Amino acid sequence: MLIAPITMNAESYIGKRIERIEDNKFITTGATYVADVKGGSELFVEFLRSPIAHGRIMSLNVDKAKASPGVEAIYCSEDITLVDINPPIPLLNAKMVRPYLARDRVRFVGEPIVLVVANSARNALKAIEEIEIEFEDLEAVVSLDDSFKGEVLLFDESESNVMFRSDFTSEDGDRFFDGCDVFAAETIVNSRVAPCPLEGRSAMASFDGEKLTVHLSTQAPHSAKSTLLKVLGLESENVHVIAPDVGGGFGAKIGTYPEEILVAYVAIALVESDGESPNTPKGLKSVRWSESRNESMISLGHGRGQRQRIEIGGTKEGRITHYRLSVMQDGGAYPMMGAFLPFFTRRMVKGCYDIQKVDFMAVSVATNTTPVVAYRGAGRPEATYAIERAVELFARKAGLDPADVRRKNFISEFPYDTGFGSVYDSGAYLTALEKVLDYVDYKSLRAEQRKMRNMKDSNKSLGIGISSYVEVTHGFPASEFGSVKLNSDGTIFATSGTFPHGQGHGTTFAQIIADELGLSLEKIEVFFGDTDIIPRGVGTFGSRSVQSGGVALSRASKGLIDKTLDLMKSEFLDSSVFFESGWFFVDDRKFSWEDIARLAGSSNLECQVDYAADSPTFPFGAHVCIVEVDVETGVVVIKRVVALDDAGRIINRLLADGQVFGGLAQGISQALYEEVIYDENGNPLTSTFADYGIPSATEFTKFERLEMETLTTVNELGAKGIGESGTIGITPCVVNAVCDALSHLGIDHIDMPLTPFKVYSAIRERSS
Amino acid sequence: MSWIKGIKLLLNDFVYKAPRSLNEALKLIREEDAKVLAGGHSLIPLMKLGFASPESLIDIGKLEELQAIEETNGVLTVGSCVSYRALFESEMVKSYVPLLSKVASQVGDPQVRARGTVGGSLVHGDPASDIAGAILALDATVELVSLNGKGDIVKRKVPAREFFVGFLETVIEDDEILHSISFKNKCHKFSFQKITRREQDWAIVGVAVAQSMHGIGIGLVNLASKPVYLDIKKYEDISELDPEGVSLLLDSVIDPPADIYGDAEYRRHLAEVLLLRCLKEIKETT
Ligand SMILES: Cc1cc2nc3c(=O)[nH]c(=O)nc-3n(C[C@H](O)[C@H](O)[C@H](O)COP(=O)(O)OP(=O)(O)OC[C@H]3O[C@@H](n4cnc5c(N)ncnc54)[C@H](O)[C@@H]3O)c2cc1C
Predict the structure, then answer these.
(1) Which is the closest atom of ligand 1 to the Cα of A690?
(2) For the residues of B167-181, what is the DSSP string, one character each?
(3) What global pTM score does this model have?
(4) Predicted confidence (pLDDT) per residue in A373-395, tens digit
(5) CB contact under 8 A, A632 and B2
(6) Can you name the CATH fold of A34-138+201-290?
């Protein structure tokens, strides 16, 4: 389909820097999170969670706990009548089935075993202390190699620990790189991280005998609804999901977790079991659960967690001709999205480079650790990290400047079919790189680096890191809903099936609608997150919202204009009727939206659109990072971060900055600070913010952002996604910078996070 | 079964008492299972983890007498309940022992500095306490108070260098309250170096050095089971100290811990590097 791009002029809201309409509420106490929602007579759910990584439950006695003050009900696995959870995707090992509460066996520290309902969270917790339980320890499978070997199996039903597998297509094996002048290889780890949304998971459910209402901290209320109705066996009209304000998700709140489903299950079960209890006055019961930070650190899904073997070859002039990536993905204890991340990695395996011969393989394995899910970028940062580290190693091996090697290998013609399931829509990779290099004056930087290296007695080493990236947004184009309705006072009420959890769609989408309708921004309210008000929806993840929900609303706005024109035409027969800049012209008269609202009276002027894009889009960019490494202590200091992220048309420059800056912070943080660590018995060592390297603003320097807008033709807005790009480009950039700083010491690679200890250890190892 | 602790906040019940005088506070802490509460930044985390479960908390944070910073007869006295923020905002402290201001400005994050107190940190006795490193280097004196048989307040003075006994252990008795810390020497030549993973983190290793007319004092942070004082009296001129000398000296007092932020060897190495840097900085201070 040929899509006519939108027209813009100086007055357009699109493209401006506009402060978020939502800001006031979020920076004061105005926001309402699930835990703030009042719910009548309330019951509280808490979970007894496994304290060991792998074991058999030998005995479990909840009698004393039942007698504990305030306890309403206690559920063990056999009390839950739901069908066990199958892997979310058919391609994953179907034998790895998860019970809602651990049955006989526990598979990670933090796995829920017993659910306690009481009249206060405190009483529920006190009751949990009364539970008697005995385990028989089983050997914990923590390392990827142990899991792959399969001597200890996590699931008796499955003959291996493999969750997902995708093999090389080439049969060349060892001869794959034949004919390359230059060859470099390394085994690198893309560390496991914790998503750490500021608001943890939270759910509140109530059931009136017929209808289930669930307040949920989620990125995708409609998907949550379909999961709930399927699992609980309810009719669609009897499930109402409301996502109030949500304090972040980063991918980890796309799916619906067992704990959340159990809260809904309990709300129904308690009503059906009659409600006669000393603790619960008759009437509507709401049941709620909010996780603590520590609980979140061990039972909200983790992200990344790949070990990669990168192999790269090419000519001595710097043309890369061969590249092979083997991935071992840590899926954690149960297959969730994480087990499937290599699929996304595969899609972006080539990065921005036109490489003739490329191959990919992946194995996802189960370990006795927290399950892995999608986390900001989900599989794509891993692909970028691999190829950008590989290119760096290749350049070093060839004795060439890494910028030059990139210049020689960029894809420059579009659309470009990678042969790995991606067709890049548009891009200008070389321009992006040249822009950032010019901006930082790359040549002078290299000169300064040489000068510093020749200085005697200096313990500081300068490092310059580059990365070029391309990524995929709206990876699986799915239909998204948008509706635009004219209120009786001439203002607009719009709804969208996407769901902002910090991004500010309320502002961005209002800009899109305002431009179409020729209205000022204040007249437009965009509403999200209520499945009774919004009939359909997909949610917000994978940087999809503007290019799906935004386009739907743009079209719904156009549709509203058309509908109004039709109405006018039937009203004013034989007149010339047209719409321009917010006015309906009828012969020599003109009508505003307010006039229309009055004229229309009670007739419903609303337009609903379901829009599905034909294909994903492929944002790209180039980042440069300058670091100073103290070679005596291993301390890395970031001096500068320059990022060019091209996501096609930018709707709101300020919010785009916000997305990129936040992404950069998370990406830098993975490179330098964050890593989920387990000991050899599967005990989490990083389950508090004291141990886990979550950064604060103090850790970052000022980010410098360069703008570039290479429009996509996939949609009329010309927009791609910008929610994850910062995270995707910067992580390898920082690691490249640190390794660049240490190259003269013969250090090729250090695994993330580049803590002072790790950096110093690498130096120590080299010098001894 | 208490593994729920640490995963979910479940504090045991306790009684909170806020005495209006030091005397009253000293009486209250003699009751069974009573614990002094100052800023709560060490104690409350211990209670959350189930490592401490006092019956009553005696909040001394509101006693004005423990918040004072004053100079009498050339001696600077800092009350035990002075927060880090009050410490680094004090001009008097800055002019007397600027090392203390500098160290206070680098403890934890703004919230920790707003509530955490000097006395709390010292009594908690964490080997990684920055302020402990500073008071060791500055050769401060710790003043403890308790009630005698007649109910009168009596004082006991302990040199900082004798205050720390072992891991989270000091010489303070259960019926004593740390009243204040005093500094008898002005000291303008100093250096404080610490390596942290993140800005707000505890020191992986820290070194505090102070030079006054009475000599050089060195306090070592997170290098043994308690804050350590390093004696280099025998070196009259610190420029005599070469890396080898420093290394030997350190080995005589340190026993570095190992964790995910560094092994013992790394910490030992950092101690050496930081100490040399401190000494260099001091030498360059005029
Ligand atoms: C997030 C975080 C980061 C931190 N980072 C650092 C850091 O970088 N560097 C560092 O050095 N420290 C750090 N700390 C520790 C902090 O310095 C101490 O927790 C704080 O100073 C303790 O003082 P408080 O007043 O809060 O003590 P409290 O917690 O109230 O008390 C601690 C202990 O001392 C006892 N006590 C307190 N005052 C007295 C008194 N006057 N007499 C007798 N007993 C008393 C209490 O009974 C208790 O046993 C950090 C703490 C947190 C929570």
Answers:
(1) 1
(2) TTEES--TT-EEEEE
(3) 0.96
(4) 999 999 999 999 999 999 999 99
(5) no
(6) Aldehyde Oxidoreductase; domain 3 (3.90.1170)
